[in-house]
Write a structure and sequence with these properties.
The complex is a heterodimer of chains A (about 280) and B (about 200).
Chain A lengths: L3 H17 L3 H13 L3 H20 L9 E9 L8 H15 L7 E3 L3 E4 L7 E7 L4 E8 L1 H5 L2 E5 L4 H16 L7 E9 L1 H11 L11 H14 L15 E11 L4 E8 L4 E7 L1
Parallel strand pairs in A: 1-4, 7-8
Antiparallel strand pairs in A: 1-5, 2-3, 5-10, 6-9, 7-9
Helix pairs in contact in A: 1-4, 2-3, 6-8
Chain B lengths: L4 E4 L4 H5 L6 E10 L2 H12 L11 E3 L27 H6 L4 E4 L5 H9 L3 E4 L5 H5 L2 E8 L8 E15 L6 H9 L15
Parallel strand pairs in B: 1-2, 2-3, 3-4, 4-5
Antiparallel strand pairs in B: 2-7, 5-7, 6-7
The chains are: A alpha+beta (about 280), B alpha/beta (about 200).
Chain lengths: ~280, ~200
């Protein structure tokens, strides 16, 4: 029987892991980019990103000083009933992990009327979804403000088509890419509704870098957008080069006959997430 | 970009103000951290005639570090997006600030302020904060401690790698660097008429 304590424990260990460890898939993609990047300044930035990952891992210090908002996504087996204290247990886990890990407290009480720091990085930004069976998969993402600010959501008209979606993504990276710590991973959501398309984009960042979408039509579109983004010239650190993004991950969904919702969530060079499976 | 120039402030501040865009710099000496909320306080206090420090010839670092760790005064520290501070930057340069350190492109107003007040915008790489923290010798909160991560902290730097992103002639290195690597792609594949 899965308890709220077990889920909170997974959240705590995932935060510690994510804050100090560059995802293995991202590290490998950076190494590959270092080999392929023709810009000397770009290569220099890539080598520093790799060195940073080694220092953070060795000294157990955060990869980036912006240790982010804490997004927790629990995919919960529908047969489980972890208890009514789940939300409080997750917030407690966030506060404890940020305090123990020496992470930065970056959450305010209210965006509009009370911009005072909560002091413990709570509340967590939490999603719970159900799946068949037992157990749970706990995803944690520490999302930096710079890359989230550079993200965007648009309700396109269907006539805009694939070309419109591509232009939306490329224009956003062109305008904001240098502020979001490139090389980037672009999470792109297409479809759903106004409120859900942003979540598609964010979830797309969880996919392993180097793994294309399973639908070959979507995979071809990902490659096309990546080529266009990497023609922008922004490069690693914004210092010029070919590697503005490591990957484009597109997640699609059904939508209304009148709609073409699109969202792009920029993942930075220190994109941090961890996933814990609880049997 | 050329081999880096070693600059130690305050002694070399006049030299720093005159460096051309694209110059790589290893920066040493005292800087003051200031993010969004810090700027709000700073500008309010300047207007009230009670600034927490004399800003003339100082360098502001757009950063909010993590707590001390691994035997270092800060665990991790790196630049935050500079454009969020654009609204206040002309006023701070007019008050004597010699340079700012951040990441990302900035507004035309900041370029004009750099020209008007002979100041520079220095950029560094975001997302390598464990590495940059090894360039911080001391960190001491001097004002606005209640802001937590946004407190005004005096940091003594030792060879922080930065580059001149906007110089006192208004040249923008982000634009220049990008122009060298941008390329035209052939038109998108013809998808015909999209199904409606």
């Amino acid at each position: 029987m899965l308890t709220s304590g077990a889920i909170a424990g997974a959240v705590r260990s995932a935060i510690a892991e994510a804050a100090t460890t560059l995802r293995a898939d991202v590290y490998r993609a950076m190494e590959r980019a270092w080999v392929e990047e023709p810009s000397p300044s770009g290569r220099d930035v890539l080598s520093r990103i790799l060195e940073n990952a080694r220092i953070a891992g060795r000294d157990r210090v955060p990869l980036c000083q912006d240790t982010g908002t804490t997004w927790v996504w629990v995919e919960l087996g529908a047969e489980e009933c972890p208890g009514s204290d789940l939300l409080a247990a997750i917030d407690d886990a966030v506060a404890q992990a940020y305090r123990e890990g020496g992470l930065r407290m970056s959450v305010l009480r209210d965006a509009l009327v009370d911009r005072a720091n909560t002091g413990d990085n709570t509340p967590a930004f939490l999603d719970v979804t159900l799946r068949p069976g037992t157990g749970a998969t706990v995803h944690v993402m520490l999302k930096g403000g710079g890359s989230d600010n550079a993200s965007a959501l648009g309700m396109l008209e269907p006539a805009a088509g694939m070309e419109g979606v591509k232009r939306f993504v490329v224009d956003r990276v062109s305008a904001k890419g240098s502020c979001a710590c490139p090389p980037l991973v672009l999470g792109v959501g297409v479809g759903g509704t106004f409120d859900s398309v942003g979540k598609l984009a964010k979830k797309a960042l969880l996919r392993s870098v180097g793994t294309p979408a399973s639908d070959p039509r979507v995979a071809a579109f990902e490659a096309e957008v990546l080529e266009a983004v990497n023609a922008l010239g922004i490069g690693p650190g914004g210092l010029g080069g070919r590697t503005t993004a490591l990957a484009v991950h597109v997640v699609t969904a059904p939508c209304h006959i009148a709609a073409l919702p699109v969202a792009v969530n920029l993942g930075c060079s220190a994109m941090r997430s961890a996933t814990v499976e609880i049997a | 970009m050329s081999d880096p120039v070693r600059i130690t402030i305050p002694g070399d501040t006049a030299m720093l103000r005159g460096l051309p865009a694209g110059t790589a710099v290893l920066l040493s000496g005292p800087v003051y951290t200031a993010r969004d909320a810090t700027h709000v306080r700073l500008v309010t206090d300047i207007e009230a005639g009670t600034p927490p420090l004399d800003l003339r010839e100082q360098v502001l670092f757009y950063a909010g570090p993590t707590p001390a760790a691994a035997g270092r005064p800060v665990g991790s520290v790196g630049p935050t997006t500079a454009s969020r501070m654009d609204a206040w930057t002309p006023q701070l340069h007019a008050a004597g600030v010699a340079a700012t350190i951040g990441k990302g492109v900035r507004s035309a107003a900041v370029r004009e302020a750099c020209v008007a007040d002979h100041a520079v915008y220095l950029a560094t790489v975001g997302g390598i904060a464990a590495l940059l923290a090894t360039c911080v010798r001391t960190a001491e909160t001097v004002a606005y401690a209640d802001l937590g991560a946004e407190a005004l902290v005096r940091m003594e730097l030792d060879d922080l790698p930065v580059w001149v992103a906007i110089d006192a002639a208004g040249v923008d290195w982000y634009e220049q660097a990008r122009a060298k690597w941008v390329r035209e792609l052939p038109p998108s594949p013809d998808r015909g008429v999209e199904p409606r």
